[in-house]
Design goal:
Blueprint (H helix, E strand, L loop, with lengths): L1 E4 L5 E4 L1 H6 L5 H9 L4 E6 L2 E5 L3 E14 L2 E15 L1 H35 L5 H33 L5 H11 L8 H9 L23 E2 L2 H8 L3 H17 L1 H4 L4 H18 L4 H9 L7 H11 L2 E2 L4 H8 L6 H6 L2 H12 L18 H8 L3 H28 L2 H17 L3 H11 L7 H23 L1
Parallel strand pairs: 7-8
Antiparallel strand pairs: 1-2, 1-6, 3-4, 4-5, 5-6
Helix pairs in contact: 7-8, 8-10, 8-18, 10-11, 11-12, 16-17, 17-18, 18-19, 19-20
């Protein structure tokens, strides 16, 4: 029997014989039970290990060997000579002690009653004073018995109270910690200027997702590529493929079907672990603990995080240079009436963009160079390029529609999608412009960037048409 682990000792593959012994259907089910600690792999020595499940414990002789791959080093573990021990045997032994304790308790409970009866039979009543004393003694004994009975009646109720379960603890947090901020800056501002209740708030709660952090997350390409054992170009390709995979699995993450959702989470977690992507595994681990109804915010946080990944070190400096200084909260309080009203109008629509008068912006692109760089045949690269051209036409129409609706988030998402595809095909000038669209926060700059992208795309499309003929 065999299984494979990555550089963090996470099991990423196992043969069917091992899965059958552990009574799991597939590697996803095994990973889930390992996370929940329902199955534990415990090394005993350098050449042996124990696998413990809820039903049994199995000892194996173990041999390991290192595998080298494009995704880094993996470890192949060979298991042999299984010795199975049933865990249920230990449970049967404890029942003997339970029976003995119950027997002793029964004997102890009988003895005091017999002694009391004997003592009562030996009492002799000589006069009235003794009778009064006996009555008082009996009344005291009855009071003690009622007190003890009361304690016995109360204690079972206390014992029946179950400890907090994980779900009850979550419900307690739901009552104490609001999922959405109660007092927002906008509501404080409205209270400050005493806006009448009949007027609608100047900023709606739906605008909160746009306040997510958009600062680029710069990945140290040289360091990460070297640690994995691949070239910088291959890492960039794998990173773009990971982002494309994440976009395609969005519906699975939102699915109410447990298997489909768990499979998507495990896939994205394992790939992020191989690529050493920051913050992703923490978000995925949190998402795995949430129900589909409560996972919307975590999913949005995940896609907002991967959209900020970049391997360009100068991105953060350029963004800080070109960005304007954001006004402070105090300035917002002073200028609340006029700027917020204009911002509300701008959210309704950025306007319309007419691309009919855009002229081609030519740049150099060679299919042969892209094919050599990617180590793929020229014919295959040409097929990918034609697919990208069709995709760009469809996504550009969506981008123009989003511009008319004032939907900045959709424009940035489309820019990121096309940027990844063009970067994979080494269409660098087009990829650079789409990168600027992806991180553009000022809607007044969008029209110029979209027209620049479209001019470059027209020139690229004309060049490919000529080469195809």
């Amino acid at each position: 029997m065999y299984y494979i682990t990555n550089h963090t000792d996470q099991i990423i593959a196992a043969d069917d014989l091992l899965l059958n012994i552990l009574n799991v259907e597939n590697i996803e089910a095994l990973s889930k039970q390992l996370i929940l600690e329902q199955i534990r792999f415990t090394p005993l020595t350098e050449t042996s290990m124990s696998i413990v499940t809820q039903e049994k414990s199995i000892n194996f002789e173990m041999q390991t060997s290192t595998l080298s791959s494009l995704m880094g080093n993996f470890t192949l573990v060979h298991l042999d000579n299984a010795e199975e021990e049933e865990v249920e045997v230990e449970v049967e032994d404890t029942s003997i002690f339970t029976l003995n304790e119950e027997t002793l308790l029964e004997e102890d409970s009988i003895l005091p009653e017999e002694k009391v009866d004997d003592s009562i039979n030996e009492i002799k009543i000589e006069n009235d004073d003794d009778l009064i004393f006996i009555k008082d003694s009996l009344s005291l004994e009855e009071d003690k018995e009622t007190d003890t009975n009361t304690l016995k009646e109360i204690s079972p109720l206390d014992n029946q109270e179950e400890p907090f379960t994980h779900n009850e603890e979550n419900e307690l947090f739901d009552l104490t910690i609001p999922k959405e901020p109660v007092d927002t800056i906008e509501e404080i501002t409205l209270d400050t200027i005493q806006t009448p209740q009949t007027e609608e708030p100047l900023i709606s709660k739906e605008s909160h997702p746009q306040l997510l952090d958009t600062t680029p997350i710069v990945i140290d390409l040289d360091q990460v590529s070297q640690s994995i054992g691949i070239s910088n170009e291959d890492y960039t390709t794998f990173l773009n493929e990971y982002i494309d995979t994440a976009i395609s699995l969005e519906s699975d993450l939102q699915s109410t079907q447990t298997e489909q959702r768990s499979s998507a989470i495990n896939t994205l977690t394992q790939l992020a672990d191989v690529l050493q992507l920051p913050s992703v595994n923490d978000i995925m681990a949190n998402l795995a603990t949430l129900s589909p109804d409560n996972s919307k915010q975590a999913i949005e946080s995940f896609y907002a995080t991967i959209s900020r990944f970049t391997t360009q070190k100068d991105t953060l400096q350029n963004k800080e240079t070109h960005d304007t200084v954001e006004p402070s909260i105090q300035e917002d309080l002073i200028l609340i009436d006029k700027p917020l009203k204009t911002e509300e109008k701008s959210k309704e629509s950025f306007g319309t963009i007419d691309l009919s008068d855009v002229k081609p912006i030519h740049f150099d692109f060679q299919l042969e160079e892209a094919a050599n760089d990617l180590s793929l045949p020229v014919e295959l690269i040409e097929e990918f390029v034609h697919d990208f051209i069709e995709q760009a036409h469809v996504e550009t129409e969506k981008m123009l529609t989003a511009y008319e609706k004032g939907d900045l988030g959709t424009i940035q998402k489309i820019g990121h999608l096309l940027k990844g595809a063009s970067s994979n095909l080494r269409i660098n000038p087009l990829s650079d412009t789409l990168y600027e669209i992806q991180f553009c926060e000022d809607s007044s700059n969008l029209e110029a960037l979209i027209k620049q992208y479209w001019g470059q795309f027209l020139a690229f499309e004309q060049q490919i048409d000529i080469l195809s003929k």
